[in-house]
Amino acid sequence: MKTVQCATHGEQEETFVCQHIVQGLRDNVPNGFWWPSDSDKTRPDAWCTLCNELVTDAGGEWTDEVLEIVQVKLLCGACYDRAKAMNLQGEP
User: Fold this and answer.
1) pLDDT tens, position by position, 29-71
2) CA torsion 17→18→22→25, rounded to 10°?
3) Considering its fold, how many domains does the chain have in total?
4) Which domain holds residue 62?
């Protein structure tokens, strides 16, 4: 497990999400939270609903054009957990 030093949470597991999830944390606005259903990771790479729609429209492919909009960002594990909880609040 690779770690990252977070200014808020200290040393944490590194995770990767789209730029919109990070912005949602800053603004406290949920944008959706998607991850690969076949992942066995505790904190798999995640993306928002907009990015999920872009991948779907691209035939399920993470094209260069999609990745340009996604702009993958690094988050600490605790920030990831906070983003996931905020976005899935009220979900089954």
Assistant:
1) 999 999 999 999 999 999 999 999 999 999 999 999 999 999 9
2) -80
3) 1
4) 3-88
